[in-house]
Every structure is written in C-alpha cells, then in structure tokens.
C-alpha cells in the first residue's frame, strides 16, 4: 500500500489534500472542548478576583467587629517635655501636668590616678569593692589580684545586678573610674564606693566632689504632687503613661485624652468603600452585553448570586437588641443599584451623640453579634477553606481536568478516523491504479487490432 507521501500517485487524484481537509474537519470537534476549557479558566480567574475583593471587604468588616475600636482613646499634649499614651483602661479627661524636675541617675568617680599606667596592677589577693546606694543597700564585688583599672571596670560590668555601669575617663591629667547608676531615681543612685585590699602604694578612692546625686521626678497633676523614680510615670493617671524628658523640668503641659473618633470614622468609611469596590468587581463579572466576547465571566453564576443575596440580607436586616438597629441610623444607606452610600454628617452625629449605640450596632456584645459579626459569619462561609467560593473554584478545576481527558479521547478518535480514511484512500488509489493500467492495456490491444484490420 502506498504511504501518505505517495498517496494519489496511482490514481492521479489529490488524495493527500483530501485527507488533510478531512483531518481539519474532524478536528473541528475539538473546538467546543477548547472553548469550554477557556471558559472555565476565565471563571477561575474571575473567582480569584472576586476573592481578592471579598478579602478586602472581610478585613474592613473585621475592623468594625473589633470591640477595641470603640473604646480606643487618643491623647494629645499641649506643651513641651511630656509625652502621653492612653491604655485600654484609660478614661477621657483633661489633665494639667507641671514638672518640677525630671528623674535622673546618680554617678560617682574615683580620685584621679596620676603617674600610673592603665596596665599597672592595683589590687592584692582578696581585694574588694563595696558599692552603696541611695536606699542604703550595698553591693560587694570581689576583685582579682593584680587587677588594673581596666580590669576593675570590666569586673564591675561583668557582675550581674550591680546597679551601675563602669567606665574610665581621662580628664587630661589622669584617669578616673566612673560609676553611673543603671536606673534613675534617688533610691537607685550610687552614693559611695570603698576599696579594700589594694596593693601597697596604690591609691583608689571616691572623689566626693564628683558625686552627682540621683533624683526622683517631681510633678503635679491637676495640683496633686507626684514623685516617680523614673521618667516614665505610670498609674498616676489611670490608664495613662507619661514620659518626661530633660526639657520637662519647669514646664507645664496639658494632656487631653478623648475618644478616638477618627479611627472609628475611618473604619466605617473603609467598610463602605470596600463593599462598593466588591460590588464593582461583581458588576464587571456579571455584565450582560449581548456579546459573548465582552460579557462578564460569571454571568448567571449561582455562587455569585448566592453571595450577593446573603450579603444584601445581612446589610438590610435589623440589628436587634441595641439602641441602633438600622444602617440608616449611622448614616449608611443601600442605594437602588446595590451600593452603599455614607452620610458623613449623620455618622459623626451618631458617634458624638451615641457612641455606645454605634458600638452595639456594628460589634454588639460578642464576635457574632452586631451587623459586623453577622457579616463576618457569612464571609467565613464564603471565603473559608470549605467555603462556597473555594468549592466553585475546585468544581471548575475538576471540569477542566475532565475536559482535558475528553479532549485527549476525542483527539485519539480523530486520529483513528484519519487512519481509517488513509487506509481506504490507499485501497482506492491501488484499485484506480489497476483500473488505469487495465484501461491502458485494453487501449493498446484495441489499437493493435485496429491496425491489423486496416492492413487487411
């Protein structure tokens, strides 16, 4: 049988071209499968964009469902040298803070060591340094024999909980060992140091003139005297931490603590924007244009319809049990096209006049209560690991796999059909070749017979 490369040689017909046309016609059966695969891939991509939009909305809902949003406070300070931070148990108020002095740590240096190298030993065996602090406590530190001034410094810094840090300062004519308190305040300040067991001829003692006494911070809050060993003053005003710096001494500042309405306002605005952005995304995906090339990828999709229905229900239903029950009472309305609209003035009025009602409407008294809690539950059913969005994506992925198998089966069937055509064409080519050969033979015989008859 002739191969495909010589198909048609025997008959003189373009059987190879005809076979190619048949193959092209058969492969048209694959196009609907390819189209369906493309549609499912477009759906998966669309579901991914929808998930991104819903994730943004879920984040906005989570902010509104956080009870701390409604109890958060902001602080401001009018004046210099004082910073204020409000904690969870703070209360709104106005406080006048007058600082007499800020807290500082104490320091003390040894007398100058003249004509002696830093490498010269100063101690014998059994030497010891004893530190005394403002609260009367002492700290003994054992010193190794033949310790230099640098060794003494290193021993102090390596000893745990000494309450001081040691350094060496050269004043231009000699070296001094300087001890600085690790903490501020009068009680923690170093007040004395004594050495025992020094080498013969070594002189190492405190220089009383270098004593820099530690001190507590002294201030008044609304006329009430306060002392603090630290420049971080905690507990003087419930829930408020004051931080003083060196410039605070002699300064009077006003600390204002008020409800953080800006954060709540931003959260509500972000909620409305995130929902509208999600609606815009859905609108593009479900747009009906009458043209398959421009229509949305999820036109008529049941999952999208279900998501929209549930979210609209959550937004429209009343929140029972609180002072505020409807979105309109906090300045949010649902427009005819399904988007949210925010009346900023009405929201500000609700926040200022009924902050507890606003908190109850959005967050309720538990994570599942309030409108935000209701929406959170719905969004979890949509976006969770076993949620409807993930199931829809998995369903499309399964259909793509099945279509891939169907494509492969159809392609094998097409090749089998083409092989059958090729065999039949080969047989036709052989038969026509034999017929042509027989025709040529008969033509020759008839011609020879005519010649013989003509001679007679």
Structure in words:
The protein has helices spanning about 15-25, 30-65, 70, 150-160, 260-285, 300-315, 345-355, 355-360, 370-385, 390-455, and strands at about 75-80, 80-85, 95-100, 105-110, 125-135, 140, 165-170, 175-180, 190-200, 215-220, 225-230, 230-235, 240-245, 250-260, 330-335, 340. The chain is α+β, with helices and mostly antiparallel strands. The chain folds into 4 domains: about 5-30 and about 395-455; about 55-70 and about 260-385; about 75-105 and about 215-260, no CATH class; about 105-210, Immunoglobulin-like (Sandwich). Strand 12 (about 230-235) and strand 13 form a beta hairpin. The longest helix is centred in the C-terminal third of the chain and has 68 residues, at about 390-455. The two termini are about 45 Å apart. Mean pLDDT is about 90; it is low at about 1-5.
From the structure above, extract its key features.
4 domains; 456 residues; alpha+beta; 3-stranded antiparallel β-sheet; 10 helices; elongated
How is the secondary structure organized here?
Blueprint: H1 15-27, H2 31-64, H3 68-71, E1 73-78, E2 82-86, E3 93-101, E4 107-109, E5 123-133, E6 138-142, H4 149-158, E7 164-170, E8 175-181, E9 190-198, E10 217-221, E11 224-228, E12 232-237, E13 240-244, E14 252-259, H5 261-285, H6 302-316, E15 332-334, E16 340-342, H7 344-353, H8 355-362, H9 370-383, H10 388-455
Antiparallel strand pairs: 1-14, 2-13, 3-10, 3-14, 4-8, 5-6, 5-9, 7-8, 10-11, 12-13, 15-16
Helix pairs in contact: 1-10, 2-5, 2-9, 2-10, 6-9, 7-8, 8-9
